[in-house]
From TrEMBL:
Region Disordered, annotated ranges: 90-120
Domain of life (superkingdom): Bacteria
Coiled coil: none
Composition-biased stretches (Pro residues): 110-120
Entry-linked CDD domains: HTH_XRE (cd00093)
Location of the HTH cro/C1-type domain: 23-76
Pfam family, one: HTH_31
Protein name listed in UniProt: XRE family transcriptional regulator
GO-annotated molecular function: DNA binding
């Protein structure tokens, strides 16, 4: 029984479609047929069509195999490489807690020195 495809929001679908289109264009620039890329990637032509269409049902492994056949697998190194939000959250967790200011009326001064009597 086939699995239900994952729920994909429009923005995510747009990202997948754009990725698929870039992969298709990369294949065409290299003058490779879809049959050749599918064979080298070890996937079916139907799966390659899904990858190039940005189908969310295509596995990440299929995308990686196509990237590898096209010589673009190192592009994966750039994904989430600069996690600005995560680093800020990490820095906030590492910062020492801020000290609370003392209340104005509760200032404690050191005790005055005891009275000393001059020796006679």
């Amino acid at each position: 029984m086939p699995r239900k495809p994952p729920i994909v929001f429009p923005q995510e679908q747009r990202l997948l479609s754009e990725l698929g289109e870039r992969l298709r264009l990369a294949r065409l620039r290299r003058k490779l047929s879809n049959a050749v890329v599918a064979q080298r990637a070890g996937i079916s032509r139907t799966t390659l069509y899904k990858v190039e269409a940005g189908d969310p049902g295509a596995t990440l492994g299929s995308y990686v195999r196509v990237l590898a056949v096209l010589g673009l697998e190192n592009d994966l190194q750039a994904l989430a490489a600069d996690d600005k939000v995560g680093r800020k959250l990490q820095d906030l967790a590492l910062a020492p807690p801020a000290r609370r200011p003392r209340a104005a009326g509760k200032r404690t001064d050191p005790a005055p020195p005891p009275d000393t009597k001059p020796s006679s």
